[in-house]
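Retro notes, item 3 of 5
We never archived the inputs for the calcium ion complex last cycle. Fixing that now. Sequence and ligand:
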Amino acid sequence: MRLLVVEDDKDINRQLVAALEQAGYAVDSAFDGEDGWFLGDTEPYDAIILDIGLPKKDGLSVLESWRKAGRKTPVLLLTARGSWSDKVHGFDAGADDYVPKPFHMEEVLARIRALVRRAAGHASSELVCGPLRLDTRSSRVSVDGNPIRLTSHEYRLLAYMMHHTGRVVSRSELVEHIYDQDFDRDSNTVEVFVGRLRKKLGVDVIQTVRGLGYLIAVPGVPPSGGLAGR
Ligand code: CA
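Structure as it came back at the time:
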């Protein structure tokens, strides 16, 4: 799962990025509305945290531009405390949720988890597929109740696949959702991560679909092909 933080306050931006990375996300950041708008318009984020008060282009205008262009990425707005008009205008502009400043980091993390899983069609914060469980609150993975230790990239890859079970996910889609912008991307490493995950999980959950990518099948449900969900 890959996120974007658009916030001009350097300290808040840095704290958000650190906490989100700690929670297992790949995170890009922007410090003004123009850069933020551009990234959100061109990169396939799983969710975006957007401050309203931004230099160059304010947050509500950024959000309206994305929505006008058909970008459906879930957006969590950072609003001024007590400003009901921020909230009303924010929802009207296409926001999915908001957190007033100053905020508790735990609340931001919980709201982002909820936005990401709802966008992928999941109601529960624990994702289950047969013996495999992934708890998005603790970033923990277990098989038959036994905890599995994963590196951050392995976790991100598995979390993305678990959010999109029943659908074939291409290698390039995985690359776009598990690395941040500055990471030196090499799509071959996706195969390496999948190989390590299979070994660590010890169960045959990740299938290779030749020429298309990977699939975690839902028992009893035929997979949907295609490369939707960007
Ligand atoms: Ca601001």
